[in-house]
From TrEMBL:
Transmembrane segments: none
Xref: InterPro entries: PhoX, TAT_signal
Lineage: superkingdom: Bacteria
Protein name as catalogued: Phosphatase
Organism: Vibrio marisflavi CECT 7928
Length: 625
């Protein structure tokens, strides 16, 4: 049965309303929807699309409850939580937090984030799941106030990636602790560099004079999946793990990546000199990469792919272009940073995974520049090549070679005039490969910092709500430099700000509003799933928005419907589907953050724990239909 809300306006009307709101805000006249449509191929294509909603579930209301709420006819169950054993001989979770590093290294890591599912058979699969960081207030009885050497090692063992086999028994998925692929990858796992920066002098350390053998991964935010069966984990806020108590003059590059010459909050440098920025000047350059992992081989060595650039990587959205080149879209999640694209030198060869596994070694990195006329929320854009010797990336401008361009990709992006963005988080490519979406989560510095002017895809000063950008590569060819863009959605609060662009676009109402879109991903039918990492105070600008949540968007109609709400003080992040699309896996990250009163998922007086949840339909149907 179709239950599309007939009151939902057409996409063109939404754009028009959006423009009217913008003109109200800026005191300028708006252009009409007709003009917009004629200018905007993305909207034109959508206007021709089906008007039937893809979504056949009842929206859930906003929530402040300490639970996961899903639509009527759906059930959410727990798959695995921080501290659960992932090997047959691993100890059970000890809520006291007094277990050692060696125990944590055999258990599911903390703060699950991006994840991918790799099918093995109809009733067996492997899940690779990022463990972004850890919560000292729950990890240790002393909450981080008296860090010992083993405590640092325990924190290093709680982050990275967890690889777990799951098996379907009696109709539902569960972790198989005996799974041959089960593995923990931590801040101390041996890795290798590949690509143009591998072996660069800026990557050499006393422990690795070749600059080829980095150790560990952490700050693993979101993810990607390749068609040759590997997992991509993306290193984001790595700077917070480096510090020193010595006097040190930092370089501008250090500062651009957030490194500070003071003791770090994670305190790793106290007991592990690798993280003392004064003693190991280059160690920090060995983080901020996309790491490729073979989830099917627990003995494989993860590979840091330098060709994809070094920044605070959010996720890696990979698409095989129609000519076979592999294109990876990459966001750099920091206020005023950039959006990137990698195009492989060689082409995907179906069935030849030995060769395909080399595709991310060599290619070209680009960064996005967005253009818009003054009053438009759409326009054209281009990808600017970040190749040494081109576009001013020369010795005269401070770059010695391609390795340095990649290691300091942020500086290279500024050099070529890339657009500063409102914190690019996840990118998702529509399954028909014509459109690409990116969450711009929020940016309090927009219109405040001189290099972050209001305009184009970043249309609001002190943007507290975020927006979802969409672009359409010219000729649906992801290797080309040109694209058209618009905003699929502008989050906002129409109850608090009814008459300005802070109300959000017309597809945002008092019933579906939220802030800070972050995780996004498509299912096979082209539903856009939107996860939030926002302000959950439910007050002021955010009143009526409740806990963090997941919504579903129909890219054809623009309709957005809330599908799930999370427990207290969590973020909803991480999305994967079983191959039959009948189980959805989502992540609940840090319920009870900073001591907020959550006891999810155990209830009672239990310690809150980051958890992977499985969403199924009671009638066994496909999620969302
Ligand atoms: Fe780890 Fe940008 O989120
Ligand atoms: Ca995120
Ligand atoms: Ca976020
Ligand atoms: Ca988070």
């Amino acid at each position: 049965m179709k239950n599309r809300d007939d009151k939902q306006p057409a996409f063109s009307e939404m754009i028009e309303s959006c423009l009217n709101r913008r003109s109200f805000l800026l005191g300028a006249s708006a252009i009409g929807a007709g003009a917009f449509l004629s200018l905007n191929p993305v909207a034109t294509a959508l206007a021709r699309s089906s008007s039937d909603s893809l979504m056949q579930f009842s929206a859930v209301p906003v929530s402040t409850a300490d639970s996961v709420v899903v639509p009527k006819g759906y059930t959410a169950t727990q798959l695995i939580s921080w501290g659960d054993p992932i090997f047959s001989d691993a100890p059970r979770f000890n809520p006291k937090g007094s277990d050692s590093a060696s125990v944590q290294a055999r258990q599911f890591g903390d703060n699950n984030d991006g994840m991918s599912l790799f099918p093995i058979s109809a009733d067996r699969a492997v899940l690779a799941i990022n463990n972004e960081y850890t919560n000292y207030e729950y990890l240790f009885p002393h909450q981080g106030s008296e860090m010992t050497k083993d405590d640092v090692l325990k924190a290093q063992s709680a982050v990275g990636v967890s690889v777990v086999e799951i098996v379907k028994r009696n109709g539902s998925w569960e972790v198989d602790k005996a799974g041959a692929r089960n593995r923990r990858i931590t801040a101390n796992t041996q890795m290798v560099f590949s690509g143009p920066a591998a072996g660069h002098s800026l990557l050499k350390t006393n422990d690795d004079r070749q600059g080829m053998h980095p150790v560990g991964t952490f700050a693993n935010c979101a993810n990607g999946k390749t068609p040759w069966g590997t997992y991509l984990t993306c290193e984001e806020n790595f700077d917070g793990y480096f510090g020193t108590d010595q006097d040190l003059t930092l370089t501008d590059d250090d500062k651009r990546y957030g490194v500070e010459a003071e003791p770090s909050s994670t305190q790793w440098e106290k007991h592990d000199q690798r993280f003392d920025i004064a003693k190991n000047r280059n160690e920090v350059n060995r983080f901020g990469w996309v790491v490729e992992i073979d989830p099917h081989d627990p003995n494989s060595t993860p590979v840091k792919r330098t060709a994809l650039g070094r920044f605070k990587h959010e996720n890696a959205a990979l698409v095989v272009n129609k000519d076979g080149h592999v294109v990876v879209y990459l966001g750099d999640d920091e206020r005023g940073e950039h959006l990137y694209k990698f195009v492989s030198k060689n082409k995907f060869q179906p069935g030849n995974d030995t060769e395909n596994r080399k595709l991310l070694e060599e290619g070209t990195l680009y960064v996005a520049e967005f253009n818009a006329d003054d009053q438009e929320l759409s326009g054209k854009g281009k990808w600017i090549e970040l190749t040494y010797g081109k576009n001013g990336l020369t010795k005269g401008n401070g770059f010695s070679d391609q390795g340095e361009v990649l290691i300091f990709a942020r500086r290279a992006a500024t050099q070529v005039g890339a657009t500063t963005m409102d914190r690019p988080e996840w990118v998702a490519v529509h399954p028909d490969k014509t459109q690409v979406f990116c969450t711009l989560t929020n940016n309090k510095n927009r219109g405040v910092e001189e290099d972050q002017p209001v305009g184009g895809p970043n249309p609001r000063a002190k943007n507290q709500y975020g927006q979802i950008l969409r672009w359409q590569p010219k000729n649906s060819d992801h290797t080309l430099d040109e694209f058209d863009w618009d905003l699929y959605l502008i989050a906002g609060n129409p109850s608090v700000h009814p008459d300005s662009l802070y109300a959000g676009s017309q597809n945002i109402t008092a019933d579906n509003m939220f802030n800070s879109p972050d995780g996004i991903g498509f299912d096979d039918a082209g539903r856009l799933w939107i996860q939030t990492d926002g302000n959950y105070s439910n007050k002021g600008d955010f009143s009526g928005q409740g806990n963090n949540q997941m919504l579903c968007g129909d890219p054809n109609t623009g309709e957005v419907r809330r599908f799930l709400t999370g427990p207290i003080a969590c973020e909803i992040t991480g999305l994967a589907f079983s191959e039959d699309q009948r189980t959805m896996f989502i992540g609940v990250q840090h319920p009870g953050e900073k001591g907020a009163p959550s006891h999810f998922p155990g209830g009672g007086n239990s310690k809150p724990r980051s958890t992977i949840m499985m969403i199924t339909r009671d009638d066994g149907g496909i999620i969302g239909t």
